Amino acid sequence: GINAEYGGPKKKKNSSSSSTMTEAAARIKSVQTFGRKKTAIAVAYVTQGKGLIKINGRPWTLVEPEILRYKVFEPVLLLGAQRFSSIDIRIRVKGGGYVSQIYAIRQCIAKAIVAWYQKYVDEATKKEIKEILVQYDKYLLVGDPRRSEPKKFGGRGARARFQKSYR
Q: Distance (Å, rounded) from C-alpha 89 to C-alpha 43?
């Protein structure tokens, strides 16, 4: 009948394709880091390359607003461009406002270079890099813990109360 035709679960003919994918992924040198500020989250994916830095698929030199562009450049300007010349950084950023996004981006660039040097170069250089960044601004590597306080009833904000009137 019906069950006689069913030959059990289908066997995979080519199981080598899945194993080659994991081997290829293992061979690609990469690190992934993140940066946060308020509700903005930036994720950096670092691979071996020739010094490209892209933010949401656009070159990092076109970051808006222009006034805050140097905030994104800070980690690179502090450490020197030659440290970034052998890697590519791709950054995805979402959430928050544009100022928060820029602070999240600069944090994830700084954390990415430290992680890369720790994983693929050497500990001494990583320590040196970390020292330079922390001396300039500790929030380049450590998240800023401040968050927006939730609004409460009886007022228009977290702390402000409605005006009191006696008549």
A: 10
